[in-house]
Protein 1
Amino acid sequence: MSSESVTQELPARPAATEIVNDFSIQVATVNGSGSQTANLVLIRSLFQMGIPVSGKNLFPSNIAGLPTWYTIRANRHGYIGRKKEIDLLVAMNPETAREDALALDAGAAVVYDEPLKLNEVRSDLVFYPVPFDELVKPICPDAKLRRLVRNMIYDGVLSKLLGIEMAEMEKALTRQLGKKAKAVALNQAALAAGYAYAEQHLPKRDGLRVERMDKTRGKILIEANAAVAIGAMMAGVTVVTWYPITPSSTVCETLIDYMKKYRVDKASGKATFAIVQAEDELASIGMALGAGWAGARSMTATSGPGISLMSEFTGLAYYTEVPAVIVNVQRLGPSTGLPTRTAQGDILSTAVLSHGDTKHIMLIPSSAEECYELTMQAFDLAERFQTPVFVMTDLDLGMNTWMADSFRYPDKPFDRGKRLDAETLKTLGDWGRYLDVDGDGIAWRTVPGDGLPAYFNRGSGHNARGQYSERADDYTANVDRLAKKFETARQWVPAEVADDQPGADVAILAYGTTHWAAEEARDQLKSEAGLTTSYMRLRAYPFTEAVERFIDRYTRVYVVEQNRDAQMLSLLKLDLTPGQVGKLRSVVYYSGLPIDARTISDEILAQEREAK
Amino acid sequence: MTTPTPAAAPAAGKKVNRINLELATYRGGKTTLCAGCGHNAISERIVEAYFEMGVAPERVIKLSGIGCSSKSPAYFLGGSHGFNSVHGRMPAVATGAALANRHLMPIGVSGDGDTGAIGAGQFVHLMRRNIPLIYIVENNGCYGLTKGQLSPTADLGSKLKNGVVNDLPPMDLCALAIQLGATFVARSFSGDKKQLSALLKAAIAHKGTVLLDVISPCVTFNDHEGSTKSYAYVKDHDEALGEITFVPFFEDISVDYEEGSSTEVKMHDGSRVFLKKLDAKYNPQDKLAAITLLHETAARGEFATGLLYIEPDRPSFIDLLNVVDTPLSMLSEAQTRPGPEALEEIMERLR
Ligand SMILES: Cc1ncc(C[n+]2csc(CCOP(=O)(O)OP(=O)(O)O)c2C)c(N)n1
Ligand code: SF4
């Protein structure tokens, strides 16, 4: 990929072919240098021009000083997964500029800080040197602010080079900075300076161009952690407990903002919720369970290390049947791993979190819309099944900027599950906390303060009436009922989404953020290699029966995921016959960057060649 | 559900409390702890205290961690909901339940291992928050349930049955709690019926976190010579701060103390605690005095018992969170799901 033939004299592509609304821009800066505003203005102005976009922030686990890259992809077809190749680099970071330039494909464009002399590194790129320091001086007399304003200059340069309308940039800027008039004026001047410089000194020599489209009307731009927060609020969450950890912190931080605004009782001015920053994840899950047991809709959000700490309590909740929603925004482990990189690495450990025989419901959204919808549904399922329900997102989804449809207002009321009331008690006649009166494995529960019969919730052996028991038959009857309950859940979880293609022999199975790259890879396989594939996107564990039937229809099924050990494939194996298992192939990616389409299509083609 | 349910008509001649319930209503299952275990005596005092205070059992929730001590909530208040959780993590569960329903009256039972070792972190933060909760440590200086290992409250030099000597200094849970901000800190002895009863009743009237450290000998593993948590040792080294009397708000004050010989503390609900002093200078609302006393008595190898520290009016964590009066667990969909206009407003900002 990276050209090592630095010394070789290659002319920059003379008359570059035009590429409209289909490219990736990467901005390389230093963490903490305030490039965020410039990057958001850039992505927003493209979005406002109706062009499908996505923004991915590759940042270090550091507050300031280490390199960070922000990648914006504009794609007229609506592909919003990561694109492997960078078409335009904005090199602002002296530390990484050389390496960043070397990593580009020949012909890519580079806007760079002139003193970095990137044109000396290789000659097969299109170079646009910009003297940022010189340009910023006259517009920003305050030397302290220059570092921040400097970044807005590259937005101005790109506006000219790519044809991003200046009016949209200014609109995005005002939106980003709000009422801070001074800051707006300063940044506007920087935009203009960049534009003017490009106009006078940088004749266009690359083929990248944007053109107004109409593909973002009614859509939103959102980091999906905020979508989870909105879902939780609309689900009526009342007790939220958390402990800060990247990449999940912004779930609760955003939720706090929304709840303060929309969940304060008008008459009394009091909160219809309690949000507690706990001392650790042992406490945050404990509090969520205490609240869930007492009848509140409760949740916590965390990432891998927190999930590990929640393991013991999760088993207790499974065994004693206490509802709670646990959001797992996955990051790259094990241990601290790469805490600011993405992965789907907790699938297996979360599915069976805790000791003994346990299995948990997991909901797996792919998009911001689904983060909203499935988080809402998680609260219903947690109460319906009286058990912890995990919402499995990842850093890519949670912390990056996604284009999404506007969220629909829920059309179904809350499902509070089998909460006993006096009427039902009368009909049932006899009540025991763990009596399976309906044959679906789900018993009726009472909660403190409801005036109905009380019970003793205990993690030790208990019989159907919740009484202490060490009898073998009580134990097995109880855990068998829990297994039955899990079977019942198959009919309640969000079903897989399938796309069966006539004549296809090969299929792809993916889930979560892998979906975006998988969809694009299918198009690549079809248009470049003539390989038609069917597709199924998993949305929950347990799987519905549809998964088995889908696998039965194909010869080879590629399970694509972002972890080393093919975790979802392992989980599928538990449900499948040996014949079905024999059809499964694995495509994995685990570098910490979001998976890209090319990786998938290359790997599938390689395996297909072997299979034939 | 905040009003006590009227009791079924009591059998004629049986003593009932002010909400018409018999003492038997406050009992729980049959204990499975060792005969003579201090924990059993504490359960009995709890039964009496709730009975005498006329608390409706359905308002009480019982919480615990893991240990012999933590089993005991099954042996009192059978009509109340209970949650026997995981080792050392009862404070979190209690906090969550208290947040979910602010009208509940949580009582938690823990052991010295459950609190001082595995649960030290949660204990510390619970004390800081002032959640309405009566937190009882049934303190025997050893791990009962796992057969007698040393716990963090074992005294320096105290010896296990098998001869193992403790060479680490003990944690003083009361001193720690006072320092961390607990608003009611007391110590007692499982065998001191009168003092423990008065303290429990005062604890029920208190609105914040109560730490009640009750020395409770483990007759099986730690009631021998060489143990400072044995019956014999505590009887000889118990330095009561004074005689404590508790008068609930619904009773007439008939106790008659000599002026100057007693301190009166008014609880937020109007109840009163009287402390008949042995040491005329002791003031249970003086933090520094409490800490000093604990250090001095510990240095002499004695246990100061009684009401060590009280701050009756500090707002609880739930007050600070400014939570609605209706229990969060009982709020309806209409009260907790914002309308379509709210969602539209949020969407518009993101477009
Ligand atoms: C995570 C975990 N580790 C260890 C244990 C084993 N364990 C059960 S009870 C106990 C000690 C209990 O001692 P204490 O809290 O002093 O109560 P006591 O039995 O003395 O009343 C231990 C270590 C456990 N249940 N859970
Ligand atoms: S082992 Fe000790 S603490 Fe446990 S029940 Fe027996 S006497 Fe009590």
Protein 2
Amino acid sequence: MEKIKTLKFSELENLLEGIQKPGRYVNHEVGTKSKDISKIADFSSMVFMALIFPDIYEIGMPNLGLPILYEIINKIKYFSAERVFSPWIDFEKKLRDRKVKLFSLENRIFLDCFDVLGFSVQHEMLCTNILNIIDMSGLKIHSKERGGRFPLVCAGGPAVVNPQPLSKFMDFMVIGDGEELTIKILEKVKTYKKSSKGKLWFLKEISKLDGVYVPGLYKFYYFKDGKISDIKPFLKVKKETVKDLNKFDIVLNPVIPNIKPVHDRFAVEIMRGCSRGCRFCQAGIIYRPVRQRNVNSLIENSICGIKNTGYDEISFMSLSTADYKDIGCLLEGVAGFMNLNKISVSLPSLRVDSFNLHLAELIGSGRRTGLTFAPEAGSQRMRDIINKDISEEEIIDCIKVAFKNGWEKIKLYFMIGFPFEEDEDIEQIVLLIKKITNTAKDALPKRNFRRFKINVSINAFCPKPFTPFQWVGQDSTGSLVKKFNYIVKNVPKKFVQISWSNPQASKIESALSKGDSSVGDAIEKAWRKGAKFDNWTDMFSYKIWEEAFKESGLDINFFATREILPDEILPWDIIDIGTSKKFLFNEYEKSRKCSRVQNKI
Amino acid sequence: MKNQENAAGFKIRFKFYKKDEYKYLSHLNIVNIITRALRRAGIKTKYSCGYRPKPKINFSNPTPLGVDSFAEYCDVVILEDIEECEFLSAVNLELVPQMMATRAKKIDIKSASISSDISVCLYCFELDAASSTVNFINEFTESVKNNIKSKSDFSSSIFDMMVKTSNENIIFVKLYGYVKIFKNLNNEIFKFNNFLEFFQNWIKKYNIINISYIKKEEIYIFKDNTLKTPMEII
Ligand code: SF4
């Protein structure tokens, strides 16, 4: 019988001495569902999967997808899923110094004893953490060099819709919704485990499933200048889609984190997908089609989930909550129970306007968190280019009403570096901020003046795969900095607080999101030079990445800032995301003419 | 409904332990875990009035991270009367074996808050000694008394310190440290982590390398010149 190796509690205790927040590494939270391995007689008929979120516990725990897979897998008696998060640098050092391999949270199983290691990749800046975890498991980071039949290493999540940058390291990758596909794959793993067949047999088997991309089965050919000349075989992998979300109940008994996560609340997905068609937005394309959950079961399950978990906050999640057709009904349905039990309700992506302000009022949380608008651009021209359906008038009207009713905080989101952007578009951002400030001041009772603040967040636009702007080259760092400085200099400082993303980090993000498999070399080099937690502002080092690209013989600009020609083969062309390249290109063409289509796609 | 919210309610004091994995959770984490467990158990807690109402829950002083504790206390004001044993089983159903409530008692709604009342905290250590001859033990005991209790940096923060042995070369140390300042005693607050570091060094003189089991055993309140546990006082 195979034996699964685990770390004893006493050994963990030795490791935890002097470690920051040791609660990150101990188990027995309420709601864990992994199998009790002391009760398993025959490991060969079981499949063990590690669900790995390559960031720390506090950030990984609030993720919506992980608990869904955890629940679905652990419901089946011959499957067991355990959670893994990135150890923080102090604990990593301890583990490496003492030569202890990384282990899972629940049973402290060493990762190399699992059958499947599955990474959830929420954004590109987690790539180095992924390599770090594979390495800390005692495994070779390259798929080709991992000789044995197990563990199989795979990745899924929004950042692998272009699977190429991580393709060298993964045995297979999962594109699209995981609910049904994960089980299909694990069933195949079970068969594979029982058999004596080789890894290649298994990979070929699962490559027949929609949503499974096996990098090893494809060959990419390149022109001298680095562009792709051919992909063989040119068989597209179709994104997996769960047609009816209602088939899977929301997770009513999630693991309740023992240490405080970044969002400490009961999160409920009410809808998947968004049809607004903003041309810069990747989520809007890759999560299509829009699927809504049934409102009655949502009401019932929300109340049930709050009772089960004891949380004092519930959050209704979606890409665009105002588009959920029964949002009013949902809020009315839960308001009584939530108010009575002092549960606050939050709607993180509710697009507030004067029509639905009453929704925010209904849940009462609005005044505290403030009004949030994401006009993204300052000028109507630019909002037409990016197809962002929000007008200045709408924002101003909404503020007038809200501020008369006691609201006093505003948060605004803008992006700079859009295609076809001109100086005037940047000037218009400043003007819009000024207008909003003045409107708010006029509507605000005098005595509340002092407290009044507008938070403005400015991000550098990153062109992403599967968007109409995928062909666009990112604006240069120098130009982004200039635009940002202009905005900072010209907004009324007294009321406005500006934050912005590091443009150098955005550039790396662009390169990683649009890269081909050669970018994997840069990721590996960066990791070997110590890059990790690249999404943490104080951990990111542009110098490391610059060197890593250079030493890999690659030009960051080739991937990030270069305008891609319409007839080029794109690294992600091998994936069928459900929206055609032609459609995306047409949208790009329309944006060139500043023409807007609404709610069409 | 309104009546219930305005009513004074009932105050329950319960004692719980946290050990093994749960000793690595901070005080703030424990507060959250207990608060949520109470809500899951369906125990209706009274809330403070105001902009952001807070449940009326009060905890005894934090235990240092990594130390097993068998003396955590919590006072909670609830809206509906409940039997003590019923309260206990309802709460424990929502907790894990690493952290459970051991006793519950209804107390006067006006009684002082537990955190402000606690005066002394009892920590226990087990030392693996190389020998437990009478001579050795006597010498060690004397030294603890003369050096640590009366002449160390920690003297004014230690209420009492006692040493006992077993046949298995284990020395049990009981240390009562102050957690509250008393003007007339001119005392200081006992700093556990600093003491532990000092003590680990100090015992090396006696060829003791290992402190094997550290726990917080009880907390006490000064009353009528004696130490009473939070359960005895009520
Ligand atoms: S509203 Fe626009 S930006 Fe937001 S999710 Fe939908 S498409 Fe994306």
